[in-house]
């Protein structure tokens, strides 16, 4: 009986080993699709699922895991449909949210991840039913590439608040594939989500308007902070804040920049045209400014106290939060009750409003202050962005440097 027992044990052990090998193989594939277990030299395109393949080859730079390091990446774009526009990407701005996503700081990143939602370029192909664009037009794509087109928000031209909106990257398109952003050579999008860029706007310096610009323009308009003589505070003089100053001044508002960095005073007043500067670490300055502002645009993407800002507001006025901290902010209620003050949020803008903003910017010569970089400098730029070392927006020269990088 002993030989039979030994033989049975051997068969069982072989079977278990076989199951383990199968399990390991399946697990490895799952981990690859999720973006883990990749070395910098791995050809990422060989690891992609067949479900993400499209007819049009594309090339860009992608993050492969939560380290946030970007590497060259071959992928594909869909063939254009009847309402689609394809364009060659010339420039792509770097937004602070790109940094959040490549590092998975919000816990929702899908790898491989091609960032970039401040994208401008030149149309190379249009679908048969496209009405607004033709080959050769200068165009841009911001934070959205689709929405459901059937909800109340979509019916009211508020696609940015659609519960099924499709973001330009790290989102799932309606065909089930993952969207990829503007750190790439080509883009394709439904014409409804494409903006016409006026010839008078330089493409590189206007690219950040497709996110930073519309993000500040929309709340200024919606909350009535676009009237001459209105006193608007702008918290943070970064990528969003410096553009907020320009738009608010163009509306005729009195603008005060509020910052924890006293050295930004000269730039705020002399370069950007702000009327005054408030160093928020100086308690005497803060006390003197209490109850003087009709509204505040808060662009800070990190944890910071709200109570001092609420104190700066007049009664019946509003603090609008635009930044995206990775942890919740503390909201003191009592100061709100005493002045019937409002704390609100605002999220990018709709497409009709985005085109309006771009046209307004062209008429008032508003662009972002930028530092143009090459594609192979992008990882260094991300490190500098994390430290706030940029005035005030990085823009990648995709058209001239992507292939060389």
Annotate the secondary structure layout.
Layout: H1 2-34, E1 56-63, E2 70-77, E3 84-94, H2 96-102, E4 119-126, E5 138-141, E6 144-146, H3 152-155, E7 166-167, E8 186-190, E9 195-196, H4 203-206, H5 212-222, E10 231-235, H6 239-250, E11 254-259, H7 265-271, E12 276-279, H8 283-288, E13 293-298, H9 307-312, E14 313-321, H10 334-339, E15 342-345, H11 351-363, E16 370-373, H12 378-386, E17 393-397, H13 398-401
Parallel strand pairs: 10-11, 10-13, 11-12, 13-14, 14-15, 16-17
Antiparallel strand pairs: 1-2, 3-4, 3-8, 3-17, 4-5, 5-9, 6-7
Helix pairs in contact: 5-6, 5-11
InterPro entries: ADH-like_C (IPR013149), ADH-like_N (IPR013154), ADH_Zn_CS (IPR002328), CAD-like (IPR047109), ER (IPR020843), GroES-like_sf (IPR011032), NAD(P)-bd_dom_sf (IPR036291)
Cofactor: Zn(2+)
Family: Belongs to the zinc-containing alcohol dehydrogenase family.
């Amino acid at each position: 009986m002993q030989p039979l027992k030994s033989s049975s044990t051997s068969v069982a052990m072989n079977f278990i080993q076989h199951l383990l090998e199968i399990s390991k193989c399946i697990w490895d594939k799952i981990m690859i699709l999720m973006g883990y277990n990749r070395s910098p030299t791995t050809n990422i395109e060989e690891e992609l699922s067949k479900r993400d393949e499209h007819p049009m080859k594309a090339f860009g730079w992608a993050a492969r895991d939560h380290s946030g390091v970007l590497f060259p990446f071959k992928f594909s774009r869909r063939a254009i449909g009847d309402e689609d526009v394809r364009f060659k990407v010339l420039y792509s701005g770097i937004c602070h949210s790109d940094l959040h996503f490549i590092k998975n700081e919000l816990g929702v990143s899908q790898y491989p991840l091609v960032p970039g939602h401040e994208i401008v370029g030149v149309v190379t192909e249009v679908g048969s039913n496209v009405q607004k664009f033709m080959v050769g037009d200068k165009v841009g794509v911001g934070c959205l590439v689709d929405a459901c087109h059937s909800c109340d928000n979509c019916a009211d031209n508020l696609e940015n608040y659609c519960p099924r909106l499709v973001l330009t990257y790290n989102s799932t398109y309606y065909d089930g594939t993952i969207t990829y952003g503007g750190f790439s050579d080509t883009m394709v999008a439904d014409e409804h989500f494409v903006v016409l860029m006026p010839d008078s706007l330089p493409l590189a310096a206007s690219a950040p308007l497709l996110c930073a610009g519309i993000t500040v323009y929309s709340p200024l308009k919606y909350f009535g902070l676009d009237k001459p003589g209105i006193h608007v505070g702008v918290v943070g003089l970064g990528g969003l804040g410096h553009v907020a100053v320009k738009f608010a001044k163009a509306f005729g508002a009195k603008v005060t920049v509020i910052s924890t960095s006293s050295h930004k005073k000269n730039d705020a007043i002399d370069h950007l045209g702000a009327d005054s500067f408030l160093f928020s670490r100086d308690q005497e300055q803060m006390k003197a400014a209490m109850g003087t502002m009709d509204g505040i645009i808060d662009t800070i993407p990190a944890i910071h106290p709200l109570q001092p800002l609420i104190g700066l507001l007049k009664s019946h006025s509003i603090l609008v939060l635009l930044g995206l901290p990775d942890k919740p902010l503390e909201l003191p209620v009592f100061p709100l009750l005493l002045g019937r003050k409002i704390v609100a949020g605002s999220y990018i803008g709709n497409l009709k409003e985005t085109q309006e903003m771009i046209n307004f910017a062209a008429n008032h010569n508003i662009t972002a202050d930028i530092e143009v970089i090459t594609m192979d400098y992008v990882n260094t730029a991300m490190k500098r962005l994390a430290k706030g070392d940029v005035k005030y927006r990085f823009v990648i020269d995709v058209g001239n440097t992507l292939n060389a990088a």
